[in-house]
């Protein structure tokens, strides 16, 4: 299986690049989570069908509990666009994690690599604690800080939350999807709601390695996931599938 962990933001000025989101208080968040689950365009049965061999860590309830962090996700535009975005996101994270099987980066030899000691906050959890975790394989100390700052969670001090709390893991995936453009020119969320198409989501996630002929087999794997998921949700995949 194709594996890689990427630097989601440039090390310098990472936090400044964020679109920050403040989470609601716990009581309000509980109501928001319930509403998000009821309104999410993917049912639990469909989620189970998408990922029949998934790790038990990646729960449907963890995903729906995370939706309140970014209310626009799969909730912007008409029903077709909402379902296309949900399918696109799940297709990409499914590819990244081998069908939601892997919670942490498999190559443990890489673990000490992800501490950028030039950052003023350093690596308080330990130099080998910022390896890839979660549905987008969040990595590097500056990305844990950036995602944590946006979500109101101390991920720099406690990166293990991303592999121990399903809702936190899903929130880090939604943070990237909704606020980061990576090697692309737009966020994956904007790519789907503005009509750029699935190919631009791939570019935002791993375009520097896969797009423009870099690794067409990996791009096709993502497309295959997306087409299968859109069919399951009963919508057309739209145009511009490849990058």
TrEMBL record:
Domain Glycoside hydrolase family 19 catalytic residue range list: 42-243
CDD domains linked to this entry: chitinase_GH19 (cd00325)
Alphabetically ordered keywords of this record: Disulfide bond, Plant defense, Signal
InterPro entries (UniProt xref): Glyco_hydro_19 (IPR016283), Glyco_hydro_19_cat (IPR000726), Lysozyme-like_dom_sf (IPR023346)
Matches recorded under Pfam families: Glyco_hydro_19
Domain of life: Bacteria
Signal peptide extent: 1-28
Protein's name in the database: Chitinase
Natural source organism: Streptomyces ambofaciens
